[in-house]
Amino acid sequence: MTVTLGPRRSPGRVRVLQMPGQSRHVLVVGGGPQAAWLVDELSRTDHRITVVSARICDDLLDMLVEHRYVWVSHDPRPTDLQGAWLVHAATGDDEQDSRVCGWVDVERRRSALATP
Known about the structure:
By secondary structure, the protein is of the alpha/beta class. It is built from 3 helices and 5 strands. A 5-stranded parallel sheet has the order 1-5-2-3-4, with helices on both faces.
């Protein structure tokens, strides 16, 4: 599992070119414009995308109507990470993003211990 914090730079500088492997589960935590930009880029791949956020912006709502991702409507929880291959924290709240990253670290360690 990989985690990325929301970039503090212009979204126009980063593009998702290709993600390795077969279809994997990508989790985007947050429902604002930064999350919408990332979902738009990721939806061009064959990976399954889930957005976890109590609310979503209009751009995400438009993409939801187009069935480009699945929305889980609640505040993020550690259990949301289960099965995710990539986690992108894009809540717009540094404290919440850090909390999500901490959950990912715990999950990564747990997965490493479970692998023989």
